[in-house]
Amino acid sequence: QQQVKQSPQSLIVQKGGISIINCAYENTAFDYFPWYQQFPGKGPALLIAIRPDVSEKKEGRFTISFNKSAKQFSLHIMDSQPGDSATYFCAAEGSARQLTFGSGTQLTVLP
Amino acid sequence: NAGVTQTPKFQVLKTGQSMTLQCAQDMNHEYMSWYRQDPGMGLRLIHYSVGAGITDQGEVPNGYNVSRSTTEDFPLRLLSAAPSQTSVYFCASSLRGDEQFFGPGTRLTVL
């Protein structure tokens, strides 16, 4: 049972374009929604995170949009760069403070 | 700070063998977790600990044991390795309700 569904599985974007990755969750008890970035051969690293009391959070070129009623959240990468090429995971955390991950999106930014 | 360290980086086992994956952190984090990463499935929680002497099961605990005798260490034991346990294993640590820091991973192959 996958409690966090992520799409698309892969994404190819031109340099300077906007990358958008979407996630949907089922458990309304989740109260923390981080995005992790993973480069090949490395462990995931926190990119940006949001709590459900706000609808948007922006850090540099990265923005999370959050829709509590729809139980959806998304990551937007503005002005995508080749160095952004990586696998991105959305996740959700509940009261037990354990993460449930989406299946991942492999982003390729073409130069 | 070394952060989260994992050993070994690579391991090949035969079916039925046992082994221990080591994880250590030097950040005095209360929470530690083990995840496995399989293609197309994101990261799935195996076991976690909220402090020394306290452990609990995650989503996929079967075939794995853990213990937490110190704050720093959280080893994962495979009791009798099976091909289905071929995966990349990540250890993570965090303060209560804070960002999770991941180790570099252990790539395990079971023949």
Textual characterization of the structure:
- The complex is a heterodimer of chains A (111) and B (111).
- Helices cover 0% and strands 55% of the residues of chain A.
- Chain A has strands at residues 4-7, 10-14, 19-25, 33-38, 45-50, 56-59, 62-67, 72-77, 86-93, 99-101, 105-110.
- In chain A, strands 2, 4, 5, 9, 10 and 11 form a 6-stranded mixed beta sheet that branches. A 5-stranded antiparallel beta sheet of chain A has the order 1-3-8-7-6, with no helix packed on it.
- In chain A, a hairpin with a 4-residue loop joins strand 7 and strand 8.
- Chain A is globular, with a radius of gyration of 13 Å.
- With 111 residues, chain B is mainly β.
- Helix content of chain B is 0%, strand content 50%.
- In chain B, strand 4 (31-37) and strand 5 (43-51) form a beta hairpin.
- The relative contact order of chain B is 0.34.
- The model of chain B has no long low-confidence stretch (mean pLDDT 94).
- The A-B interface holds A 4, 6, 9, 32, 34, 36, 41-46, 49, 89, 97-104 and B 4, 31, 33, 35, 40-45, 48, 50, 58-59, 90, 92, 94, 96-97, 99-100, 102-105.
Describe what is shown at a glance.
The complex is a heterodimer of chains A (111) and B (111). Chain A has 111 residues and is an all-beta fold.
